[in-house]
Amino acid sequence: MENLPPCPKCACEYTYAMNALVVCPECGHEWAADEGGEAVAEQVVRDAVGNVLRDGDDVVVVKALKVKGSPSGIKAGTKVRGIRLVDGVDGHDIDCRIDGFGAMQLKSSVVKKA
């Protein structure tokens, strides 16, 4: 069995590894840890003009996007609030909710920081 560090929030010793994260079963806290239990540097995601994006930022779509199954797409200039950065598929690294469309993933290359 691995020697995983205790939870930094509640000090629970029953943590377990899930992919690249360490998870606490008592409080639900998740954090990235390498072999020694130290935090790993997080990825840097940049928007279309080079600004660094963070979780919770507001962004604006810079070009019209077609949405499969929708007669109208997302228009350029649409504001998206409270983004979440994820390791998505095919470069889709932003998880968000767009009014009128619902939850979806976007590429950081089609948005700029608001």
Short structural description:
The protein has no helices and eleven strands. It is mainly β and 114 residues long.
Structure description:
InterPro entries: YjdM (IPR004624), YjdM_C (IPR013988), YjdM_N (IPR013987). Residues 45-114 form the Protein YjdM C-terminal domain. The protein is mainly β. It folds into two domains: 1-41, N-terminal domain of TfIIb, CATH 2.20.25; 45-113, Roll (SH3 type barrels), CATH 2.30.30.40. The protein has strands at 16-18, 21-23, 30-32, 45-46, 52-53, 59-61, 79-80, 84-85, 94-98, 102-106, 111-113. A three-stranded antiparallel beta sheet has the order 1-2-3, with no helix packed on it. A three-stranded antiparallel beta sheet has the order 7-6-11, with no helix packed on it. It has a three-stranded antiparallel beta sheet with strand order 8-9-10, with no helix packed on it.
Architecture blueprint of SSEs:
Layout: E1 16-18, E2 21-23, E3 30-32, E4 45-46, E5 52-53, E6 59-61, E7 79-80, E8 84-85, E9 94-98, E10 102-106, E11 111-113
Antiparallel strand pairs: 1-2, 2-3, 4-5, 6-7, 6-11, 8-9, 9-10
